[in-house]
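A favour, since you know our C-alpha cells better than I do. Go ahead and set the record down below.
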Amino acid sequence: MEDRLDRRSKRTREALQQAYVRLLREKKASAVTIQDIAEAADYNRGTFYNHYPGKEELLAEIRSEFLRRFSELLLAPYPDRSGVEAAEIYPSSLMLFEHVERSRETFLALLGTDAGLPEAMTRVLRESMRRDLRLTLEGDPAEVDQDFMLHYRASATIGTLLYWAETGFKFSASYMARQLMLQLNHRLDYIAFNEKARPE
C-alpha cells in the first residue's frame, strides 16, 4: 500500500513539474499561477499544495533534478574501467548532450527563468570532474593548473550546450558531442590574421 502511494505521489509530482515546464515555455514565471499549474496537470490547487508549498519550491525541484542527472553522467559509459584515452571520452560527452536533448523543454524553461543556470551547470560539471576524473595532458607539463583545466573544460562544455540551444538544437546530440571533442582534444596549430582586421 505504501509503495503504491509513493508511486502515485511521484507521478503527481512529475505531472506538476511537466505542467509548469510547459507553462514556462509559453509565458513568464510571474504570469503563471498555482491554479494554472494544477489545471494544466489535471489536478486541483489542494493537490498542488499537498506536494509543494509554492511555485518556487516546484521550480527548485525541477532545477535540482535536472542538475543531479547532469552530474551523474560522466562515468556512466565506463562502469568497469579505471580510465580511458582522451579520444575515448566521446560516449561520456554524448550522454551529456543526450540528457539535454531529452530534457530540452526543461532546459529551455530553466534558462528562461534562471540566469544563474549556466553557472550552476558549469559548477556541477566541474565538481563532478574533480570528484571522478584525473586529467593528464600530453607530456604532463607541471605548470598546468588542474583546477584551471577543469574549469576551462567544464566551461567549454556548457558554452557548447548554450550555443546548441541558440541554434534551436538544429544539430544532433552526436554531432555536438563530436565537435566538442574535436575542440578540446586538438591543439591550435597556427592563427592567421584577416587583412581587414589590421589597423590602417
User: Anything to note?
Assistant: The two ends are 80 Å apart (CA to CA). The chain has a mean pLDDT of 89.
